[in-house]
Amino acid sequence: xxxxxxxxxxxxxxxAQVNFTTEPDRVSVTIDGKHFTDFVLxxxxxxxxxxxxxxxxxxxxxxxxxxxxxxxxxxxxxxHQRGLWFAHDRVNGLDFWNNESNYKTPNRGLIEVxxxxxxxxxxxxxxxxxLMNWKSPDGAKLLEEKRVMTFRKTKTLRTIELDITLTxxxxxxxxxxxxxxxxxxxxxxxxxxxxNSGKGIVDTQPHTGKISNAExxxxxxxxxxxxxNWMDYTGTIDGETLGxxxxxHPTNSKRARWHVRGYGLFAANPFxxxxxxxxxxxxxTVELAKGAKLHFRYLIVIHAGDVKDAGVDKLxxxxxx
Length: 321
Hints:
globular, eight-stranded antiparallel β-sheet
């Protein structure tokens, strides 16, 4: 059977369904011609790169808009919790997590994107590779980071796989045992499990979220600070049940404990041990000599339905191979 030459030419020039557009301050990601997220490199008060917003397959935004945008009734606490980010608050005594440029603390570190190595789209997936430097306030480089982000799509899922390698550049780099690290997401208020009741915080949107882990445990009070292969946050947006799951790969340099809060913070933290359990004797501190590396892989799944509908157990079995 001969295939018409015009058909072959048309197929050859069809645009990739996961596409990237590189600009000076960001790399925009589109899926099937619709905006999915931006990898924001710099701008405003941010001192670390982040992904914002994150959308479901149906196009609903599952991350908080603040501080990139102000939305009535949305809480405006924790300005540094922008979309999805990767950082830690105790690295050689420097804070790369709570580190907006307008904060008054003197020990704020900077994660600076050195360059986008590549941004290659594809029919059902696309990959951004970036090189970053973790710097002290005086500009000294502590760490080099290579981050490979793979964006995939199905009819009901949007996934982001993070493959991150940290290499010590300073003679010694110490990651301290603390709660604020490392892979963080700030969820849309409607997905929160509980009202944000902090002093002076306006939080008037409804909250529909439920936190659960791979063992079937639920609520912040039960799962916070515990180990689990994955953690999920599911709720309802405009009548549609949606959720986000983070999967912690078993070969990671250190497995995560989950700093997941009812007010919408969702974080996988490999360095927290004592900070999560007052009776635990294990110390999560990690020291790297110059040239030593840490490697982390996480899969972020934005799914329709709940964890059963999304087949999270099957996704874990595939991801953990």
